[in-house]
Amino acid sequence: MTSPLTVVGGGIIGLSIAWRCAQRGLDVAVYDEGRDDGAWYAAAGMLAAAGETAFGQEALSALLLESSKRWAGFAAGLGSLGYDRTGALDVALTSDDLASARRMWGYRDGPQPLASSELRDLEPALSPRVRGGALLPGDHQVDPRRVVAALRSALGDAVQPRRVDTIPDGPVVIAAGIGTAALTGLPVRPVKGLVLRLRAEPGLLRHVINGYVDGRHVYVVPRADGDIIVGATEEERADLTVTAGAVLELLRSATDLVPDLAEAELTETVVRHRPGTPDNAPLLGRWRTDVIVAAGHHRNGVLLAPITADLIADLVVTGRPDPLLDAFAPGRFA
Ligand SMILES: Cc1cc2nc3c(=O)[nH]c(=O)nc-3n(C[C@H](O)[C@H](O)[C@H](O)COP(=O)(O)OP(=O)(O)OC[C@H]3O[C@@H](n4cnc5c(N)ncnc54)[C@H](O)[C@@H]3O)c2cc1C
Question: Structure pTM?
Answer without folding.
Answer: 0.97
